[in-house]
Amino acid sequence: MATATAAPVDERIKNLGITRQLLARPEIGALLGAVVVFAFFAVQSSVFRSGPGVANWLDPASTLGIMAVPVALLMIGGEFDLSAGVMVGTVGLTIGLLTGEYGMNTWGALAIALALALALGFFNGYLVVRTKLPSFIITLGTFLMLQGLNLGVTKAITDTVQADSIDAAPAYHPAFDIFATTISIGGVGFRVTILWWIVLTALATWVLLRTRFGNWIFSVGGNVQAARSVGVPAGRTKVLLFMGTAAGAWLVGTMTALRLTSVQANTGIGEELIYIVAAVIGGCLLTGGFGSAVGASLGALIFGMVQQGIVYLGWDSDWFKFFLGAMLLLAVFTNQFVRRLAEESRR
Amino acid sequence: MSDVSVPAEVPAEVPAAATPLLEVRDIGKYFGSVIALQGVSMTVAPGQVCCVLGDNGAGKSTLIKILAGVHQQDTGEYLIDGEPVRLANPRAALDRGIATVYQDLAMVPLMPIWRNFFLGSEPTKGRGPLRRLDVARAKDITRRELADMGIDIRDPNQPVGTLSGGERQSVAIARAVHFGARLLILDEPTSALGVKQAGVVLRYIVQARDRGLGVVFITHNPHHAYPVGDRFVLLKRGRSLGDFAKSEVGLAEVTRLMAGGAELEALSHELEQATS
Q1: In 3D, which of A271, A280, A278, A304 has the Cα closest to residue A41?
Q2: For residues B205 and B216, what is the distance between their CA atoms, to the nearest angstrom?
Q3: Using an 8 Å Cβ cutoff, are A87 and A120 in contact?
Q4: Which of A88, A288, B86, B184 has its Cα between 20 and 30 A from that of A328?
Q5: Dihedral of the CA atoms B192, B198, B200, B204 (nearest 10)?
Q6: A291 vs A337, higher pLDDT
Q7: Got the DSSP string for A144-186?
Q8: Which of A253, A109, A218 is nearest to A168 (CA)?
Q9: Which of 137-156 (B) contact A at CB < 8 A?
Q10: Containing H/E element for A310?
Q11: Would you say residue A5 has pLDDT above 60?
Q12: What is the pLDDT of residue B14?
């Protein structure tokens, strides 16, 4: 304050530096990562950079991204959802059993599955908010329960471990056209899930940065006491975020079921960690209060590229898991550093 | 600690004719068998700073929590604008223009200043599903309100975590003033601060008072309280030692009463003997 000679305001902004300001953006690490990963595979594999190749790695990235985005919002809100992956399976199986086994209309099955998913999300959120227990433990419980239910119910109804003949149900085709079809752009077939993914990312970004609810998400993750004391409905915000990941699980479960026309009872198990890793790579802090939807989508994009890139290079796909772990560590270290920059106190 | 500089001189006597903004009479609060507070009375008029002084465990926190609507009194009367009230929650206090700035600051360190400033009361534009934050207005108001309080922020996008302790207190005070507070309750705003930063906060207390706000300033430091205070309520072990006007007591007297008078003298005597 003392050195106010010419223009104190400008003078003090400058010492932050452009690089530091850029570094403080949550998605910058993921963007750099995506560019590096793309360059790495594109240089070595011509298929990877071809139109069909791009469509091929955007496909897994899209369904991963549709989950990573709501998971990121939840993490910014300070909570985890370990049941997000297995919930995809629960939704798929519900649709599969209702249509394939009971011949229900596809739209009806989708509606019931949505109601079920939202109820599960509400259950998770309500328990976390009411008990004030870590969401890690609560959703681990839901995760295990759903895993058991998925298998148990499927076996009891079909005597196998899968639900199939989804395409035999009425109204299968119009639903397929919305959730699972391919759209031809320049002779290359892109999955419609990619469009869903992009729209969802844009919507989540808008909600996060430009609405009151977005402001509340940051605040309940950053300092829930402070948020409460200024009148933010913290409990409701968190419950809605859990319902958001459940809605994401419904969307991905629907896409999977309609596309594959059969759903395995173990679908989605283990995926929940990949969603979280994608969100962390996208700049979400494990402690909440910081992160971005675009970042989480970039994290998902990185995984899509690596998953397919490894195949194109003819590597053993076991390397994918190694890569997953390495990226996670790298991202956590980067986030730690970024957080220090952002929180650096001049006291 | 005594060299804290406060710019504006305190007016000699505040006109007592106006209805007090806030008044408590013989207020008490029990937690089970523990008497946290008993028989405390005080009044705060607009444009007046009332300091609540007391050592740890004196009942300061209980008193402000009643004033702020966090707790409800068990005995006695609480009047706002001369009207008896029983505040159900902090929101009810806020609706009546009573804003509390807590010691552990209701701020989210990772969020920008402007987002913190408007947290819970965000300005919006547009309708229905297109209802969105009015970011430009929020930033503009934040900058202007802080400038009015004499706080020069570099950039409203700066995370609050990068501000110093005094600046954070000041942002919290400016926020309370902006959202229509007529009475500010400041819970130990200077206790975690260095001498210079404490001076900054005391300056904002004076500024708020000069804008006609009532201020309840809770502290255990008489050196911070005395220069800005108009009235002094001294608490000790849950009871009031009295509500004094500035003309009735001196700094030394306040300090002596607060620390427990005779006990402190006995202690200093003991210490002198021990060292000799």
Answers
A1: A304
A2: 10
A3: yes
A4: A88
A5: 90
A6: A291
A7: HHHHHHHHHHHHHHHSSSEE--GGGSTTHHHHHHHHT-EEEET
A8: A109
A9: 152, 154-155
A10: helix A293-312
A11: no
A12: 46
Count of residues in chain A: 347
Type of residue numbered A106: T
Q: What is the pTM of this model?
A: 0.82
Closest partner CB to A342 (pick from B119, B159, B164):
B159
Token pair listed for A303: 């995984």
Interface test with chain B among A12, A286, A347, by most B beta carbons within 10 Å: A347
Tell me the shortest Cα–Cα distance from A140 to chain B, in angstroms.
28
Per residue in B210-248, pLDDT (tens digit) is: 888 899 998 888 888 888 889 888 888 888 888 888 888
- What are the tokens at A223? 């300092």
Q: pLDDT tens digit string along A96-121?
A: 999 988 989 999 999 999 999 999 99
Cross-chain residue pair B104–A344, CB shorter than 8 Å? no
Sign of CA dihedral A20, A23, A25, A26: negative
Other CB atoms within 10 Å distance of the CB of residue A53? 20
Contact by Cβ (8 Å): B147, A330 = no
Which H or E element spans position A119?
A: helix A106-131
HEC states along A46-74? HHHHCHHHHHHHHHHHHHHHHHHHHHHHH
Are B120 and A233 in contact by the 8 Å Cβ rule? The answer is: no
